[in-house]
Every structure is written in C-alpha cells, then in structure tokens.
Description:
eleven-stranded parallel β-sheet, 15% strand, alpha/beta
Amino acid sequence: MDDENPTVTSLEVLNRDCLLQIFALLRPQGGLRPLSLTCRWLRESCMEVLFERTFADVALLQYCPPGGFPPPCLWPYLRCMTLLERFGPAHNERTKYLCPTHEDNVASSLHAMRQLQKVIFQGEQQCLPWPIIYAVLSTPTLRSLELHGGLTIDREASHAAGNLQRAPLVSLCLVPEYLRPSPHHYASEIEGLASLLEHFPQSLQTLVLFSQSTPFTLLSRCDWPQLRELCIEGDGERVWTCPIPLVSVLSRMPRLRVLQLKLALRYDQHPKPIWPQDHNIAVLPWPELESLTVSWPCVDDGIFEHLPDTLRHLSLRCWPHLYTAHGYGRTSRRKPIPWLMDAPPCADVLGALGKCPKGSALRSLSLEFAADTDIADAGLLQ
Length: 382
C-alpha cells in the first residue's frame, strides 16, 4: 500500500512500461495468470501481455466468418499468432482453393487485430495455402513471418494477388525440415519462395532460408538495402554446386551484419570457398559485418583475408553439431541423413583462422575440429 494514499497499491504507482516489463517476466514462469485473477485493475493491466499470443486452426479459416480465432474482444491485444495445420492432405485440398469471400473474411479479421506484428505457421504438411498467405501478408501491421516447412508455387494464386497491398515485412524465417520424407519438391519450393521474396527486398532486415530451397538467382538479382541478418541453413549441396561464388550471390547486401552459413556436408562432397582466390571481386561486399558463421571452412577461402575491422564474432564449427547429429540418428525412424557426422579437419580450421587479420577486435571465437598429431605444433593458443 502507498503510505500517502492507503487505497493505492504499490504496483499502481509504477508507470506502464515498468508494469509491462514485470508482467512479461512473470509470464514464462506461469505466474501472470494467477496475478491477473486477483483484482479487476490487475486483470485489465495484464491484458496486453496475457493475450499478446494466440493460436488459430487453419482448417477452420475456410468457414464464414472464419473460425479458430480468439474472441474479438481480445483482438486489440494480439501481437503474435500461430497458425496450426493438423489435418493432412484433405485439409490442403479444402483450403488451397478458398473462395474470395472466405479469403476476404480471413483478411478482414486479421486487419482488425491492430497490433498483430508476427505470424507463425506450423503444420504437418509442407504447404501453407497461398490464399491464406496473401491474407496474412495484407495485414498492415505485419512485420515478421515464420514458416515451418516449405512453399510450393501456385501460379494462379500468385497472378491473382499481383496487385495485393502488402505490409513492409521486416523479418522472414523459413524454418527448415531437415528430416523431410521423400520426395523432395525443391524445384517448386525455390519458385514459390522466389515469388514471395520478390515483394520484400527493400524492407527485409532478417532473412532465414533453407539451403535446398534458396532462390540464389533472386538473391543475386535484387538489391537488399536494409538486410542486416542472413542465415542459410541445411544441406550444402546447392550452395557448393552453384556456378556463381556465394560472395557474388550475396554482394548486393551492403548493410549485412550477421552472416550464418550452417551447411551440412555430404559424404561424397567437398566444401568450396565462399570467395575463391581467382574470383574477380576486389573488396568484401559487407563492410559492416559483425558476425560470421562458416560450418566447413576452406584454407584457400579469400573471405578470411578480407574480414573487416567491425567483426566481433567468428564461428568455425561443423553443422549440424555432433551431439545434434547423433540425436537425429537415435530418434528418427526415417532413413539416416546422408551427412558427414564428423568435425572439420584441424588443418582447415586453423589454416582459415590463421588468414584472419591480426589485431582484430573479436569478442567471441568458436572452433570445432578433429584433433590430429600436429595440433601441438599448430600454435592454437597463440
């Protein structure tokens, strides 16, 4: 209680920013809901944090009005929504061809959520219906989209949505499904992802891609003036067989600060340099680079010789990490993944590290390699 005003609790004297921070800390521990039930004032104060995240069933969005959404009285508080798809191929056939009325109803419902900034899709299948994608992208307040699975191209839907008003998306994360059952539809996914990405090169700041469906042609063709963070994760086959060196593919990202290349190596492959020594490029295209992750470094990779003074974090570790890879083998019932479950050779990692500029202001360094008899002479601790 407040000494000057006994009817005012100590929480009420805090400003709203402090209260929201306290509520946000209580939520992960399960303490926010009990607190919100103590009195009406706390209930109303907690609403913004208590109901900022919700779930919706994709299969129910086909109805008019759309089902699966929380009550409209909670819409003003929603900031993040997860769309769940749990009904297999039959559901895909129902929702792939939503009539315009249903699509408009989904869009109007999402538009009424004035604070909705992030949408996450999680499903058992590899395809989110494009009408729902476009309804989500038309939400004016949307800034972040996270897709678990893949995208396949729907030319009819893509053409019909050519004039759709889209939000200035800032973050796009395509979470890869590493142990996806065959067949893989990568060609269709590359085209589908390209049709999505081509609308946002000017606004994206964070981009996370699955290596096997990454549209390298689009990345090299468009300018990405705001992109700060890029992560390419998954099988390294398409990256290392790309006819254009990766340093050229990603050369139109002048403000890039974080580059993560988490690539798995197949048994019959050899990693290739990001920047070949004979490649005709003079300077590193990312002068503001602060963090670099390379899973299988090459001794003759020119990128290590041209790292900028802004670099603070360097990681030269295999991917997937050995403990993760062995976990896949123990828990998966599908056929074994065809990746080399070993650490990079000592000579490659230490050779790449030795080419980095001396006197750099690194704050963190992560190394992972297979030790050999020459490690004592490698001067690692120097």
